Amino acid sequence: MIPGFSQRRRFNDLNEQEILALAISSEEDDARIYRTYAEQLRADFPDTAKVFEDMAQEEDGHRQRLIDLHRQRFGQTIPLIRREHVSGFYTRRPVWLMQNLGLERIRDEAEQMERDAERFYVAAAKRSTDAATRKLLGDLAAAEAGHNDLAAHLIRDHLDDDAREAEDRSAHRRFVLTWVQPGLAGLMDGSVSTLAPIFATAFATQDTWTTFLVGLAASVGAGISMGFTEAASDDGQISGRGSPLKRGIASGVMTAVGGLGHALPYLIPHFWTATIIAMVVVFVELWAIAWIQKKYMDTPFLRAAMQVVLGGALVFAAGVLIGSG
Length: 325
Description:
Elements (H helix, E strand, L loop, with lengths): L8 E2 L5 H26 L4 H29 L11 E2 L7 H4 L4 H25 L3 H15 L1 H12 L2 H33 L1 H11 L2 H26 L10 H18 L9 H27 L3 H24 L1
Parallel strand pairs: 1-2
Helix pairs in contact: 1-2, 1-4, 2-5, 2-6, 4-5, 7-9, 7-10, 7-11, 7-12, 8-9, 8-12, 9-10, 11-12
């Protein structure tokens, strides 16, 4: 291989046998992807898993029709050519990336897969000079175009309104338990627990740079501590709270963000300007926490506001009093 030059072929340079081989391997890959989705979703979303199993069977049928045509025209030996061998050809996301995405995102990804396949078959049909091949590729393009209708039909078969609502509730619950709850706990801890050391340092020294360094250390340290604590507290297997890594990241990052919000203003060299801005940031943080509790945790807004704002105000006052003394 010459450095700087790709070994991939251009689609326009493929002959008809290679186009059929590429279609066969693509259908095989898509069937595997759908079956992987089904396996990933089976425990929590069994009805959607059935939809993907049926879609995988459809791809198996397409692959078999392509193999039969290849056998008739070119014999038993199918050239090894895959998507990654063709320059500019559509790619699929690695399945492991989809594990971190929600149910609706996986459904959207499946729809995009069908649109990509349709465009490929339309382009392939235009390249073919054999009547039978052109007909099959055109039929497959129409089939892929109709897969959204098929998906809708399969969803009607396997996902009635009650099942769809139950799966949506389960997905929302998992999102809340995995991301929102640990992130909210981290934001509350980072926003409230760092108030006292930051404002005590500010009023004791009236040195903005020293205050910033204390705030940075407190925020990062609290973020690391909260992240490891959340990740180690529960592996999620029994509680259903999801991956400990995800929860640890959510908790750790939001803890650090909560503290840094009112530490960063002390990069401003003027003490009172920095302090007033930091106070405004604290006010916004506390009300944001109350809003998140209301939206995702179903906590009455006034009760959430009283808990968070009152608690934050007490910690803030303690820091100011200690620093002033």
